[in-house]
Write a structure and sequence with these properties.
globular; eight-stranded mixed sheet; 8 strands; 326 residues; Rossmann fold; alpha/beta
Length: 326
């Protein structure tokens, strides 16, 4: 880092400061200047040969959908389920709708499965700008119903499917719940939203306060958004692209919303949690102090990652103990 520290520097914990220094030294250009193809190469995360959380069974799946074949992985926690088929969390990776792979969230999916006792279904949806909105959401919609149809073969409970994701994946999870509600279709039992991108207005104070935050700057976030919905859409964006624009958030599944303290998206995500609460949705909202956007999937790097995964696992275990319809 330069000697002149940015204003947010004192808010970062030691782990976050260390990673921020590393990013400043290694990323010579902002993501928006790299472009999609080069950025994918820079941020590619190989699947570890020896994962931090070994599991006896990880299935590689191919889904036949309206758009073609999609890849997915199903992580089974070790040991037999307590009774009957397992509940499952559909996990949607982040990456600004432009980046992100199954390998990049392999460790976090393993950790959630091991700690919660839930299976975790990780989806490789289509990416922008090659496949702009609503392609990714269409893939998530199709995958949700593919999973319900295939549940008995996979050993999971079709009536106990939660959805979740980080950043762009959090957007897709929230949008999927909205779309299912509006169509009068089966809803997930919960939504787990990790610093979700829910509003395309870029107007909340955190967009200015953390405009130059590590990993994701405000300018980069705008670039990602333009790749996803197109730079000419403006106010024409609908609620399934930006869930904050929904007229009502009533009758949506209970939610866990996790945010990072030093993150341009923080205020939007927390405002979304508050809107859910006002509209009668059961919500737990947790701000993770001292960390920045992207920390959740960095297993073994941030101490706060371990805490956040444990919080998600606790939420899922609580759902399982409460039972269907609770």
């Amino acid at each position: 880092m330069n000697e002149a520290k940015p204003p947010y520097w004192e808010q970062l914990d030691p782990d976050a400061r260390s990673v921020a220094r590393f990013l400043a030294e290694t990323l010579k250009k902002p993501v928006r200047e790299l472009g999609a193809e080069v950025a994918r190469q820079v941020f590619a995360t190989p699947r570890p040969e020896q994962p931090l959380t070994p599991l006896d069974r990880v299935e590689c799946l191919t889904l036949a959908t309206r758009s073609g074949e999609l890849r997915a992985r199903l992580y089974h926690p070790d040991g037999p389920p307590a009774a009957g088929p397992r509940p499952v969390l559909v996990y949607l990776h982040g990456g600004g709708f432009v980046l992100g792979t199954l390998d990049g969230v392999d460790e976090v999916c393993r950790a959630i499965a091991a700690r919660s006792g839930w299976a975790v279904f990780s989806l490789e949806y289509r990416l922008a700008p090659e496949n702009p909105y609503p392609a990714a959401l269409d893939d998530c919609f199709d995958a949700f119903f593919w999973l319900r149809r295939a549940a008995s073969v996979l050993g999971i409970d079709p009536e106990a499917i939660a959805v979740g994701g980080d950043s762009a994946g959090g957007n897709l999870a929230a949008a999927l719940c909205l779309k299912l509600r509006d169509l009068g279709l089966a809803q997930p039992v919960s939504q787990v939203l990790v610093y979700p991108a829910v509003d395309g207005a870029f107007a909340a104070p955190s967009w200015t306060d953390f405009a130059e935050a590590p990993l994701l700057t405000s300018a980069d976030a705008r670039w990602f958004w333009d790749q996803y919905i197109g730079s000419d859409r403006g106010e024409a964006v609908d609620q399934y692209a930006a869930p904050m624009r929904a007229e009502s958030l009533r009758n949506l599944p209970p939610a866990l919303v996790l945010t990072a303290e030093v993150d341009p998206l923080r205020d939007d995500a927390e405002a979304y949690a508050e809107r859910l609460r006002r509209d009668g949705v059961e919500v737990a909202s947790v701000r993770c102090a001292g960390v920045f956007h992207g920390f959740f999937t960095e297993v073994g790097v941030f101490a706060k990652t371990d805490e956040a995964i444990s919080r998600v696992a606790l939420h899922l275990r609580g759902l399982a103990e409460a039972g269907p319809g609770s």
